[in-house]
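DM from R.C. (forwarded with permission)

"hey, sorry to bug you on a friday — could you get me a structure for this? deadline for the figure draft is monday and I only need the backbone to look sensible"
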Amino acid sequence: MSFDENYFSTHTYENISFAKYSMYWWSNRFYAILARRYGKRGSRLLEIGSGMGHLIGDLEADFDTSALDVNHWALVQSREVTDTTDLNTGSAERLPFADASFGVVIIKHVVEHLRDPELAISELGRIIAPNGILILATPNLDSLLKPLKGDAWIGYQDPTHIALKPPAEWLSMIRSADLSPLKVFSDGFWDVPYISIIPAMLQKLFFGSLGGFQAIVGIPFLPLRWGESIIVVAEKKV
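My reply, with the result:
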């Protein structure tokens, strides 16, 4: 599968709304809050897998921002929502940056697409400066409600998800890259419906309320198994 323009009109992107207050908007807002809370403002920040640039564009006022994506078409679109960000085409497994060059790195729902995610995480450890911060998210194989979805679970719906792993494996890779997890949590149960006989809207209100509240207040509190993604904030060891 090529991560070209067609990718952004299929699979998990096909139902995304870029409108303000959409789920996509709230997600970007939440990750921006994490970057500002855990990262040092004014430091160099890199988003890997920056897509169409909405998250990195939101962070330009607070950080010296760079973006990297394998999809050159998406980077071209990013120019519409970024002003000062340094845009780069490249792979997470071979990062074109010097050692210890970033104070914050965000890699949101990228590692599951990689043939060698362990190499990519090792690269993250290389480019993050001492006391720098990693923010990583990927599908959560330990989600409590995943068994209710079976083969229809969101993590299985994108055929480019070739590196789905349990949280323990991701955490082991992160620690092996000289990064110490500070916060490990989840994003809530938003992959409705989970129960076929109950209207999806009711399930969204019931199952998704905690994840929605977490996104609104910007404070990570959901236990690891209480959501469809594992989210890790880790610090580079000195």
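R.C.: lifesaver. The longest helix spans residues 23-38.
me: no worries. Strands lie at 44-48, 64-69, 86-89, 102-108, 128-139, 179-186, 229-236.
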